[in-house]
Amino acid sequence: EFRRFSLERSKPGKFEEFYGLLQHVHKIPNVDVLVGYTDIHGDLLPINNDDNYHKAVSTANPLLRIFIQRKEDADYSAFGTDTMTRKKNVLSNVLRPDNHKKKPHIVISMPQDFRPVSSIIDVDILPETHRRVRLYKYGTDKPLGFYIRDGSSVRVTPHGLEKVPGIFISRLVPGGLAQSTGLLAVNDEVLEVNGIEVSGKSLDQVTDMMIANSRNLIITVRPANQRNNVVRNSRTSGSSGQSTESSLPSSTPNILGNLQGEEESDEEDIIIEDSGEPQQIPKAAPTSESIESLSQIELLHESTQNGFLPSSEMNLNHSAGSISMEYEVPEPGRKSLEEDGTIITL
Amino acid sequence: MRRFLRPGHDPVRERLKRDLFQFNKTVEHGFPHQPSALGYSPFLRLMAIGTRSGAIKLYGAPGVEFMGLHEENNTVMQIHFIPDQCQLVTLLDDNSLHLWSLKQHGGASELLEEHRFTLKGPPGSPPSATQVTAVLPHSSREVLYLGTESGNIFVVELPSFRVLEDRTITPEAVLQRIPEDNCNRRSCELVEALREHPKNPDQILIGYSRGLIVLWDLQNNKATHHFLGSQQLENLYWQRDGSKFISCHYDGSYTQWPVSSDNRQPEPLENTVPYGPFPCKAISKIYWQTTKNGLPYIIFQGGMPRASYGDRHSISVIHGSQQTAFDFTSRVIDFFIIFSSDPAAEFDDPSALVVLAEEELVVIDLKSAGWPAVHPPYLASLHCSAITCSHHVSNIPLKLWERIISAGSKQNIHYSSMPWPIDGGTNIAPDPPQRDLLLTGHEDGTVRFWDASGVCLHLLYKLSTVRVFLTDADPNDNMNTLGEDEWPPLRKVGTFDPYSDDPRLGIQKIYLCKYSGYLAVAGTAGQVLVMELNDEDAEHMVDHAEADLLQDQEGYRWKGHEKLKTRDGPVRFEAGFQPFVLVQCQPPAVVTSLALHSEWKLVAFGTSHGFGLFDHQQKRLVFVKCTLHPSDQLALEGPLSRVKSLKKSLRQSFRRIRRSRVSSRKRRGGSGNASEVQEANAKFDQDALQEMELAPVQRKIEARSAEDSFTGFVRTLYFADTFLRDSSRHCPSLWAGTNGGTVYAFCLRVPPAERRMDEPVRAEQAKEIQLMHRAPVVGILVLDGRSTPLPEPLEVAHDLSKSPDMQGSHQLLVVSEEQFKVFTLPKVSSKLKLKLTALEGCRVRKVTVANFGSCKTDDYSENDLAVLTNLGDIQIISLPFLKLQIRYPCIRKEDVSGIASCVFTKYGQGFYLISPSEFERFSLSTKWLVEPRCIVDMPEVTSNNHVHNKSGTENAARKSSPGDCGEDERKSGRLMEHALLNDEKVLKEIQSTLEGSR
């Protein structure tokens, strides 16, 4: 279905308004859609916020071709930078929805829906020769899949070149997280584990540190192959001052970047109360509040004894929603739990 | 995270920390590992023991002990006290001589090394020319006579160790006086013995290895007599009056020789082979002691018939018609006789025989009929059966203490009542502040109760659990009752018996309630015994229950050992701790955790399969909980499959160590055969080394998961009266932590005392916490409203502790190998944590709450966590804020058995094994310090012929300043451990204990 309508180029307005306009024009007010446009190179690019909407409008020459797809059967792979070569294909895919039945495409969600598996971090503050890699074990069933060994490396010291003991990656397990990221390789020297220098530590100590941090492992390595390094000089970002500083041949890689930021969040232990459902253990409230909440919990306890579920107290430590959810789906094993009043701890 | 990296710099706290914490290694308890030499000073009444790792330890009256360490860590071959001096000389296997002195410093005596010296021959001479074989400190205290392999006797001045070359007694000089047809140059090779004439200090007796004995006149530099022995000489001993001497020989014979002025070449008076007529082993040392009644004591080592008793380690005592061959379970290192040291006395009148065997010290009372053994107050052989676990209980109530002592005294009736004969020096240490018990569990199913209050670790009472079970071994008590005509008249002495009848009997966990006298012990085959102290012998039934920890888990087959068979019917128990309940876990895997609550009368136990709770009042199993993960096959198969790989890696480390030892150590007199063996060994080692080099050491980095092995292994159990379900009512609870990072909490309903027998104890699971890092849970603790750890059961009832604060909210502390976490109760939310492994790469091995008092003020004390890590560091972590206070290196990280054996006391002290037979005691507290402090005074010199030249030696002693010897002393503790660890035998012990515990 094609529609043609005009927009005032100088006053494009907000994306929200534009989205509403599209729904109105196509008479699909309650259908979620993906919006895309073809830019000057012929690439199919998404419009999903004010920025790219404005960009799209400004590049319209003079026509802006907009593609609208239902979100359910959207073909995400159609978006991309090298769609020019496959332009025809893209269009045919979009225009002939029956195509999906013959060749079902893998549905890939939008970037914000991805869970990260690995990343290179602190590029701006580390020396060029070093690489800080973060492996997110949390989101995957893949094993970390690597081994470390003792070895020796040559360092520049005030007394000239010196051989010092070091820890190296000795093996990558095929199909493991470490190998699949491509960021770590055999014979890379491990310099830090989650911000702690490994020099002076034994192989067993470093092993224990890595395993202790295995849910969110950040290792700083000196790659054995230095050819794939980021070339800083061509960078145009604003942090050029930092990068010149860090490109000095520094032998002390003890630069703490954003190592700790998200570390606390992914560590929560699980509690099962009275053989109920596993829950993440929340953080304790500050002490001043905990006394207050204590008295209210007792109050709650009494009221549950009476068979009420007073919703006003529920949002003390949790959102009321989650509690009522639990309550709506009572399991046989929960009976005693209600009687004991331990529901408040769920 | 950063806040843990930077310890706070609160100056008030820093000052307080200095008043609270201090690390000291204070004393070594037990029997020295691998003793190699023995010395005794009748003048000081002190005994000295040297070891293969170069340590030298002096012992006198109980509490009087000194330790020194030779820097070289070489074997101590000989120890000789300088007559009438506070000095001794040691000879090491590198042929170096060391002079040690006891010096008074700051009101107490110290043992310091003053000089060292190695005899040097003329250039180009073979090393054997100066290899010292015999040492004689002359009674003049001015010189040492050093007999050598070459037959030369060198004279060195003391204390400077200057060689007086003009006084050397050469074989040539000796042979000048002896008719040539009897002797040649070879007769004077290797000086075997040097003995000074007891009455005439100018004469010394020289014994050469080939049998020639010469009496040498030092004044005139000539041989006055010579004695032609036909047998290879082993040793010599003078009769007290100097009219005769006795020689002992390689063929198992001894010979008496007269010394008179008319015959320069006397014939032997008597030549005896005591255990002939068949070929006998050598008699290596002999004493001849005179008595008032005329019958001498002849006491000698060895001489057993070679074929039938050649493997015995014996010392024979012959006194008139009485003859006994004391039979030791380990090799005899050396022995001495304590006799009248008064030079004016006419007779020796021996009172005691002191024997240093490889694994124990045995003292025989020669005054009492039947020659009973004397119970040593120190040097206890901790390892008479291998130690499998230990448990410390501080501040024992006097009543319980007396009952244990009384039970123990009934076991010691066969000991002599003689006071301890080695009683030199004075103990000036203050009396121990409290009565402490150290309980050690052993492989043979015994528990030993040691008085650990002071410097002397003394055995109070020994408990055996064997009686409850039916074992293959017959209780055979007739070892000492040999028939009258039994020949040789062997008599077993000592307690060292490393052979366990049944490894399943091994004790793994001990828990003693000091208020009620209830004791729980648990063993290798899943047996849990609850005992009660009874002052009388009794015969009764032991209630028996089985705890099936697998419950409804189907299709599993236990491939480990079988459970122990129990005795039917009543069993007779001697006074002391008598078992009344036996619980056997099924499968019969080793018990890995144990807790006893004497007030609730409950005992909890855990294995690699799960845990259970038993009511020992009603004798009823309350519940069991299986913790096994379905995929964990290893835990089911028993300990077999895992041991193999461990064995292999240990074997490799032995090889490596053996290799370094062979190359570094000079072997003396290695025969052809020995060198062949060495060569083969070296080749073997090379192969092993190559094998290791091919596969470099690498470590797998992998997150732990629920599917890992042994996640169900129950590491810790804890009883607490706390708020488990709601914050208004507290209730008894049982907590369990597993290897997989799971914590289970059970709510218990214990009926009130008046209905205790009528209503059952009930338990209901209330919580299950899964730590996401899945590290093994090694400690669980509940802190009360004041953040103080909950008191022990019955502690409050006995007015020894404040009641816990039940008003404020309680907190739960979970210690895993990697992290410390505090959670709120009853609603579990995480409050605080300290990540140890993520930051430092070390893991928690042992953790205990300890109370630290300030050395400045009596009214301040605080509770902290004392933590031992796998790196051997000790850390003190504050409660409840989990701040690292201080860290001390304590045990070498390679010393696996030392770390595994460590036990902390409630007041900031601790013990760990530095060898299978020795505990090192350490203190973290400024206030509670148990260390030897003693003084050795020079007794009055009574004899006239010994006073000459006293001033001269004193001058010399004064000249030599102690210098930096204090530094050595300080280092010695560490060096000692180092030396021990480099030893193959120690590693073997480690291996055996590891295998035992798996």
TrEMBL record, chain A:
Annotated InterPro entries: PAR6_homolog (IPR051741), PB1-like (IPR053793), PB1_dom (IPR000270), PB1_Par6 (IPR034868), PDZ (IPR001478), PDZ_sf (IPR036034)
- Keyword Transferase among record annotations: no
Name the residue ranges with Low complexity bias.
Answer: 234-252
Q: Name one GO biological process term.
A: establishment or maintenance of cell polarity
| The PDZ domain, residue ranges | 132-225
Top-rank taxon: Eukaryota
Instruction: Check the record and name the CDD domains matching this protein.
Output: PB1_Par6, PDZ_Par6-like
**SMART domains in the record:** PB1 (SM00666), PDZ (SM00228)
Ranges for region Disordered: 228-267, 326-346
- One Pfam family assigned to this protein is PDZ
Annotated PB1 domain ranges read: 1-71
Q: Which UniProt keywords apply?
A: Cell cycle, Cell division, Cell junction, Cell membrane, Cytoplasm, Membrane, Tight junction
- Cellular component terms per the entry's GO annotation: apical plasma membrane; bicellular tight junction; cell cortex; nucleus
| PANTHER family the UniProt entry points to | PAR-6-RELATED, PARTITIONING DEFECTIVE 6 HOMOLOG BETA
List the protein's name: PAR6B protein
Q: Which organism is it from?
A: Daphoenositta chrysoptera
From TrEMBL, chain B:
What InterPro entries does this protein map onto? Lethal2_giant, LLGL2, WD40/YVTN_repeat-like_dom_sf, WD40_repeat_dom_sf, WD40_rpt
Do you know which Gene3D superfamilies this protein is assigned to? YVTN repeat-like/Quinoprotein amine dehydrogenase
Record protein name field: LLGL scribble cell polarity complex component 2
Localization per Swiss-Prot or TrEMBL? Cytoplasm
Family, per entry: Belongs to the WD repeat L(2)GL family.
Give the GO biological process terms.
cell division; cortical actin cytoskeleton organization; establishment of spindle orientation; exocytosis; Golgi to plasma membrane transport; regulation of establishment or maintenance of cell polarity; regulation of Notch signaling pathway
Q: Which residue stretches does the UniProt record annotate as biased composition, category Basic residues?
A: 658-669
Q: Does the keyword Signal apply?
A: no
Q: What does this protein do?
A: Part of a complex with GPSM2/LGN, PRKCI/aPKC and PARD6B/Par-6, which may ensure the correct organization and orientation of bipolar spindles for normal cell division. This complex plays roles in the initial phase of the establishment of epithelial cell polarity.
**GO molecular function ontology, one term from the record:** GTPase activator activity
Q: Which UniProt keywords apply?
A: Cell cycle, Cell division, Cytoplasm, Exocytosis, Phosphoprotein, Repeat, WD repeat
The record lists the organism as: Eulacestoma nigropectus
Q: How does it assemble?
A: Interacts with GPSM2/LGN, PRKCI/aPKC and PARD6B/Par-6. The complex is enhanced during mitosis. Interacts with DCAF1.
Residues of the region (Disordered) are 658-680, 945-972
WD repeat segments run 69-103, 433-451
Domain (Lethal giant larvae homologue): residue spans on this chain:
272-372
Listed Polar residues bias regions: 945-954
Which cellular components does GO assign to this protein?
cortical actin cytoskeleton; plasma membrane
Where it mainly occurs, coarsely classed, is cytoplasm
